[in-house]
Amino acid sequence: MLGEPLRRGLSARGSEDYTLSQDAPSAGRPTSTQQTSQHTSDDMLALVLNSLDDDKAEEVVCIDLRGRTAIADHMVIASGRSSRQVGAIAEKLAERVKQVTGRSPRIEGKDAGDWVLIDTDDVIVHVFRPEVRDFYQLEKMWLPADALARVREPAQPSSYQPQD
């Protein structure tokens, strides 16, 4: 969780911490030749959390996925106050990831600004407008019940309706 020290441990990918390097491409995805340093999934998580904090993201929740799924080691869920802020948070995060790793993360949903997904390989980041976040309730799917109660109060029924 946010505020807890990061723990190193077994990942879904193996016993060693997975690094973003030319020697270990992620799931067959190409890596950049500009990259000169190695970054663990915990390093990427710290970069993501710092970026979200710098851009005033709200209600940031970090979920450790290691050992639960092979899609990523961490999931981060955050809110922005408006569509414009959601898009700006995602854009700045993508810029910072590219600066540090030399690789551009994949981004979906930035144009609409309701829900933006940023995939950095080891960390999946979801940035929502508050009412969209309440509607989809990703934390409810990924966090254990006791952790969910500590993170957020139960969501009020949302008036948000997804567009077809």
Overall pLDDT score: 75
- Would you identify the CATH architecture of the domain at 41-136? 2-Layer Sandwich
> Numbering strands along the chain, what is their spatial order in the largest sheet?
1-2-5-4-3
Global structural class: alpha+beta
Distance between the termini: 34 Å
> What is the count of β-strands?
5
Question: Helix tally?
Answer: 5
CATH class of the domain at 41-136: Alpha Beta
Provide the CATH topology of the domain at 41-136. Beta Polymerase, domain 2
Subcellular location: Cytoplasm
Main location: cytoplasm
Protein name: Ribosomal silencing factor RsfS
Region (Disordered): 1-40
Model description:
Keywords: Cytoplasm, Repressor, Translation regulation. Residues 1-40 are annotated as: Disordered. This is Ribosomal silencing factor RsfS. By secondary structure, the chain is an alpha+beta fold. It has a domain at 41-136: Beta Polymerase, domain 2 (2-Layer Sandwich), CATH 3.30.460.10. It contains five helices and five strands, in the order αββαβββααα. The protein has helices spanning 41-54, 83-101, 130-136, 138-142, 145-151, and strands at residues 58-64, 74-79, 106-108, 115-119, 123-128. The protein has a five-stranded mixed sheet. The model is unreliable at 1-36 (pLDDT under 50).
